[in-house]
Amino acid sequence: MASNLTDRLSRLVKTMRGQARITETNVQEMLREVRMALLEADVALPVVRDFIARVKDKALGAEVIGSLNPGQVLVSIVQKELAATMGEGVADLNLAAQPPAVILMAGLQGAGKTTTTAKLAKHLIEKRKKKVLTVSADVYRPAAIEQLKTVTKQAGAEWFPSTPDQKPRDIALAAIDYAKKHYFDVLLVDTAGRLAIDEALMAEIRDLHALLNPIETLFVVDAMQGQDAINTAKAFKEALPLTGIVLTKLDGDSRGGAALSVRQITGAPIKFAGTSEKIDGLEVFDAERHAGRVLG
Ligand code: GDP
């Protein structure tokens, strides 16, 4: 059985006991272990390279002070860099807007947008005591509109009807209008996704963004996407000013390396994690806990 990074690093720490300085060989050995652990966790290769370069810089310049030995100093450099990349603490949704605060959901088809829309509705109702409306601007799949209706009901929120013969922007305008008239605090807008990046759809969601001026633009991404997450993240970051990420399907058996990739590529904080198919399978993302999972 492959040992995890914590075990590997503690073995290195032991071999470095009694040394007064950090040598280049120590650093190389440590970096090799870190690189392997990150790749095993499915962090995208360019992100791993960047991370290793940053740790290397810091490690080579590090002084061994006080009662620490070189191994312990190196381990703490890796941990700090990981926390800095993954984000620290937790970041909840920003709702500081003239009501309704609009939240725009973006992502590929199958990423979990519709499910997450309902999960967020439930979270906002229960944890933030908000009156929440959902609407689907996915006019390409009638089933997607019906799906949102069903899950919104489960969430205890209100669903605003839309039909495939409408234009997404007309749906958005009607929903905003309804939300204002009926004093909703939050409007969650689910959007169409494709199995791969699609220029026409990107233009459409940019148009919706300009029209709705959302306080949150959330990028929903499947944690099981592994290496591919980086390309999806790049495309959505170029199209939209993302304010946060929802990492879905963390209940799967992935080590969650996509978190590191997506965070680094978009620069946006990971705000929530999807942890089951059920309506309550949503957690506020805890970066430190997740860093531990990625390292194994
Ligand atoms: P959309 O196309 O982006 O709207 O994706 P859906 O919301 O329809 O989700 C696609 C599939 O992923 C559905 O079968 C969901 O039940 C499932 N799903 C979404 N989020 C999660 C999650 O956090 N964990 C698990 N296990 N399944 C999820």
TrEMBL record:
Cellular compartment(s): Cytoplasm
Record's keyword terms, sorted: Cytoplasm, GTP-binding, Hydrolase, Nucleotide-binding, Ribonucleoprotein, RNA-binding, Signal recognition particle
Chain positions recorded as GTP binding sites: 107-114, 190-194, 248-251
Record's catalysed reaction(s): GTP + H2O = GDP + phosphate + H(+)
EC number(s) on file: 3.6.5.4
Keyword Cytoplasm belongs to the record: yes
Domain SRP54-type proteins GTP-binding residue range list: 269-282
Main localization category: cytoplasm
Stretch forming the signal peptide: none
Similarity remark: Belongs to the GTP-binding SRP family. SRP54 subfamily.
General function of this protein: Involved in targeting and insertion of nascent membrane proteins into the cytoplasmic membrane. Binds to the hydrophobic signal sequence of the ribosome-nascent chain (RNC) as it emerges from the ribosomes. The SRP-RNC complex is then targeted to the cytoplasmic membrane where it interacts with the SRP receptor FtsY. Interaction with FtsY leads to the transfer of the RNC complex to the Sec translocase for insertion into the membrane, the hydrolysis of GTP by both Ffh and FtsY, and the dissociation of the SRP-FtsY complex into the individual components.
Comment, domains: Composed of three domains: the N-terminal N domain, which is responsible for interactions with the ribosome, the central G domain, which binds GTP, and the C-terminal M domain, which binds the RNA and the signal sequence of the RNC.
Record text on subunit structure and interactions: Part of the signal recognition particle protein translocation system, which is composed of SRP and FtsY. SRP is a ribonucleoprotein composed of Ffh and a 4.5S RNA molecule.
Name of this protein: Signal recognition particle protein
Source organism of the structure: Roseateles oligotrophus
Residues of the full protein shown: 1 to 296 of 461
